[in-house]
Design a protein that fits this description.
Distance between the termini: 39 Å
Shape: globular
Helix content: 40-55%
Largest sheet: 5 strands, mixed
CATH class of the largest domain: Alpha Beta
Number of helices: 6
Strand order of the largest sheet: 2-1-3-4-5
């Protein structure tokens, strides 16, 4: 199975937004609001409203988002987190940073997590599943959610540059 993945044309995107981007940067610099000020607060409020949640937290990277999501979910030493073997190292780094053990499962022909292999990887120490979506393709979340619910596991999912934590209450 082969996929043609087009590269993003960043120069064109910038040219299309150059005036708006330059104005925003100039405004921030003129106010001296460089770190955790009005713009971040406004972004977090707007994002929370868009997602229909009470709070949202802006962070500097997906790595930090994964670490904070794992910590917010209570992942700690001795815990196991199931993720996919075909992923960027930051996924594993975030799990290890929390003191947990990454449990890697294989991929399907589409290079996404093979949900049929998740249940065999679950042990008494398993606390979460971290599916990784790749190149615009989404893992089989219906099956993954079903497995998580059946085994009382948390799902930490990176979606469209935002991380979400799922747990049925």
């Amino acid at each position: 199975m082969s996929y043609k993945i087009p590269f993003v044309n960043y120069p064109l995107q910038y040219r299309n937004l150059e005036e708006e981007i330059s104005k925003a940067i100039k405004d921030v610099l003129n106010r001296g609001d460089l770190i955790l000020r009005k713009d971040v607060e406004e972004f977090e409020k707007n994002l929370a409203s868009f997602l229909g949640v009470k709070y949202a937290v802006g962070v500097n990277s997906c790595t930090d988002a994964m670490i904070l999501s794992l910590k917010a979910a209570g992942i700690k030493e001795e815990d196991e987190v199931i993720t996919v073997s075909h992923t960027f190292f930051a996924t594993i780094e975030a799990i290890v940073h929390c003191g947990a053990k990454p449990i890697l499962i294989d991929v399907n022909e589409d290079f996404l997590m093979d949900a049929d292999k998740i249940e065999k990887a679950i042990t008494p120490k398993t606390r979460a599943i971290m599916p990784v979506h790749l190149n615009g393709r989404v893992c089989g979340m219906d099956k993954i959610m079903e497995i998580a619910e059946k085994n009382n596991l948390i799902i930490i999912e990176a979606v469209d540059r935002r991380d979400r934590i799922y747990k049925k209450r």
